[in-house]
Amino acid sequence: MAQDLSSNILRVPWHNAQPVVIGVSRGAALTQGLAQPVEESEATAFTLVELVAVIFTLAVLAALALPLLASPSVKDQQIQCLNNVKQLQMAWTSYAGDDNGKLALNTATDWGGSQTGLEAEYQPGQAEASWVLGCATNPVADLITHGLIYPYVGSIAPYKCPADLKTCPSGVPTLRSYSINGYMGGYWAPESAVKATEFTNLGTIASHFPPAMALVVIEENLVTINDGSWVQDIGALALEPNGYWIDSPAHHHLNACSMCFADGHCLMRKWTDKWVLADTPQDSPIDGDAVGRFYADPNSPDNAWVLPRCTVVAP
User: DSSP letters along 133-164, please?
Assistant: First the structure.
């Protein structure tokens, strides 16, 4: 009978077998075989200081994340507002283009001979017709649809900023957030230390100052918006060292508002004037409530930035 060679094999119990090491020297294998496993240290719990640090970090991250979570809505409102002023500016330009360059009148139909802005003389084709009628606190759509530029807009929606929550005395939302620079098509000039240029024709703007500097549509502050004319006094700095406001800009968009210029470009300007942001006009410390004007913040460049964009001194 053939000898069973398998009986000559030394059988080692499996639990005593050493792993086969491939690609290392005998010495290294021997060292590895003799190495003893290192016991893992016991897990320790968080200390109170570490726990507080973690909670504080999470709180900081949450605070940083909240504005980001809200930003899409804010951004959407900003985009829509800029789109609104652009549509109004384009309609304003189109109206002038169809009327030999003549700008739509920009009259203050919420005072003087008008009680509502809906009287016959203010309707399209009449002498006192204006780009928009009446007062913004009167929620009558006809005050918008009977305005001169409305046929070029075609909807009342672009007249209202989505972030503007102002309501009428009756409690219903207002229909308009925007005004047009009072020197564009207007004929009301404030009592001023200087004589200002009032524009009546689109083609003459560029001969006085760059169209990119010529403010047309602006989002007006909820405390001053009334008629469709946004009035400033370019002689303000001559009358009062720090300047003053007659009408105030809005700040619905994180302290900013939309505006559009005669060349068609739009921007959103962020304001720093504390009286503008507080919605609480402060009477001038020099001459009180003269001509309805209120104090400009001496620590802000806002008023000085606006004035040269409204008009220029008349030649």
Answer: -S-TTS--THHHHTSTTHHHH--SGGGS-TT-
Whether pTM > 0.85 for this model: the answer is no
Q: Nearest CA to 303 among 283, 263, 278, 275?
A: 275
In a domain, 126, yes or no: yes
- Positive or negative CA dihedral for 123, 127, 130, 136? negative
Cβ(139)–Cβ(173) under 8 Å? yes
In a domain, residue 160? The reply is yes
188 in a domain, yes or no? yes
Domain count for the chain: 1
Residue 37 covered by a domain: no
CA dihedral (243, 248, 253, 257) positive or negative: negative
CB of 179 within 8 A of CB of 310? no
Q: Quick one: how far is CA 142 from the chain centroid?
A: 28
Q: Tokens 């003799």, residue?
A: 34
Q: Which residues of 103-115 are buried (b: 16+ CB within 10 A; e: fewer)?
A: bbbbbbbbeeebe
Helix (H, G, I), strand (E, B) or coil at 180: strand
Q: How does pLDDT run along the chain (315 residues), one tens digit per residue?
A: 444 444 444 444 444 444 444 444 444 443 444 445 545 455 566 687 777 777 888 887 777 766 555 555 889 999 999 999 999 999 999 999 999 999 999 987 665 566 788 889 889 989 889 999 999 999 999 999 999 999 999 999 999 999 999 999 889 999 999 999 999 997 655 567 788 899 999 999 999 999 999 999 999 999 999 999 999 988 887 777 788 899 999 999 999 999 999 999 999 999 999 999 999 887 766 665 655 678 899 999 999 999 999 999 988
Q: Which structural domain range is residue 220 located in? A: 76-309
